[in-house]
Structure formats: structure tokens, C-alpha cells
Amino acid sequence: MTLEETMRELERLGTEQTRKTYLRHGAPHPLSGVNFGPLTALKKRIGTDAVLARALWASGHTEARLLATMVVDAPAMPWKELDAWAKGLDWHTLTDVFVTNVVLRSPHAAKALTWTQSKSEWVGRAGWQSLSALLMKTAVLAGEDLLPWVTRIEQELPGAKNRVREAMNGALIAVGSTGGAVQTAALATAKRLGKVEVDHGDTACETPEATQYIRKIQARKEAKAKKPAASKRTRARA
Q: What's the rounded Cα separation, in Å, for the pair 77 and 83?
């Protein structure tokens, strides 16, 4: 599909209800109001198209940029381009989709952690979201010393920008969920920080309470670890 054809399709797929929802969540203009179901279907029709992805990203259009993260050839993106896309982020949902669809598929994913030092709200969020995603969905940071991240979160979160605070809280949960001494340190940090206040705008979204979520994830891991042992005993009796 050409850029013009894709933009016409996005306009056709848009709805007023989705436009209103996106605007409540902070999406910038221009936008058409296309939710993720139709976007995913459109992505399947297009496949991987790096040239179209770059044109969609450059358009500045909200759904075009979301779609760009889906059709870009992320593994082939050089660091310079990945970094440029990060610096073009302009709202929290696009930031999170960018991390999931592009950063995690990039050979430069670990380097994306340097974004945590950015003064930009969206670049900073991308960095902390990348830390969470790498810990929860990959083994890239396996064996790394994670305690310095806990220290940074405790020191920097109170003064961080709104959506960076939210991402840092999520990162604290992800780091703490790795267990051991890091989990103990993360729980202590969460207690000292207390409830993390995030302005979610005119939405029903709430900020997860780190201590509660770390313990929930740990409990799920422990329950999962017990299942194989129980299955082996059942097979042995059979």
C-alpha cells in the first residue's frame, strides 16, 4: 500500500467514539479514531514495509504512527534511527507501543536504557518502559546487577515527570519481580516511596501499587513452580 492509500484507509476505519477515547488519553492531533483491532488487521494486510513505516511515522498522524511501529522492519533499524523515533514520541500510548513493537525487536534494545537519563517525558518513559519490557519479556538482562536501578528509582521518581513516574513505578515492579535480594530492596523502596501519584487525565486508569504487584507476581511464579512437581508425582503414581 502507498502512504496515500493507507491514510485513506485509516480515515475510513476511524470512529468518533475512538477519537474521543484517544483524546481523553492524551493523543495529539491529527487523528482518525482507529482502535487496535482494525490497526492489527491493516498491519496483516501490509506486512513488513520499512519505506511505508518511515512515511507513516513522518506524517505525525496518531494512528499512522501506531501503524508504523507495527510494519517497520525493527531488527534492521540502525540505532540512530531508533533513537530518532524515540525523540519523536509525543504521548504515552505511542511510547508503550513503540517499546513493545520496535525496541524489543531491535538489536539495540539494551542501549535503549540510556533513554532513562533523558529530560524528555516521552523519551524518559520509553527508557523505563524498555527496562520493564526487557525484564518481563526477554532474557537480555539475565545476570545483570539490578540493584542500581532500584537505587535510581528511589532517588529520581519523586521529581520525575508525570508519565515517567508511572513508567518508573512499573520498572520497580518488574525489577522487584526478579526475586532475591533485589526483590527485598524493591519492596523496601516501594514502602518508602509510598503511593505513586500519576495524573491519568479524564480516564479511569489507576497506578499499580508496587508492593502489592511484586507480591502477586512472586506468588504466581511460586504457584507455577509447584505445578510441574505435582504433575510428576501424578505421573509416577499412574
A: 10
- Please name the amino acid found at residue 184: T
10 Å CB burial of residue 106 (0-12, 13-18, 19+) is buried
Written in H, E and C, the secondary structure of 35-84 is CHHHHHHHHHHHCCCHHHHHHHHHHCCHHHHHHHHHHCCHHHCCHHHHHH
Cell of 89: 514520541
Which among 115, 110, 192, 181 has a CA at the least distance from the CA of 148? 181
Could you give phi then psi for residue 85, rounded to 5 degrees?
-65, -40
Q: At CB < 8 A and 24+ separation, what contacts does 44-52 make? A: 45/1, 46/1, 46/6, 46/71, 47/71, 48/72, 48/73, 49/1, 50/76, 52/1, 52/2, 52/3, 52/6
Q: What is the pLDDT of residues 22-61, one digit of tens each?
A: 999 999 999 999 999 999 999 999 999 999 999 999 999 9
Separation CA 109–CA 205 (nearest Å): 28
Is 134 in contact with 109 (CB distance < 8 Å)?
yes
- 124-172 pLDDT, tens digit per residue, is 999 999 999 999 999 999 999 999 999 999 999 999 999 999 999 999 9
pTM: 0.93
Q: Please name which of 22, 98, 31 lies closest in space to residue 60, comparing C-alpha atoms.
A: 31
**Cell representation of residue 63:** 494512528
- Rounded CA gap, 77 and 105, in Å? 10
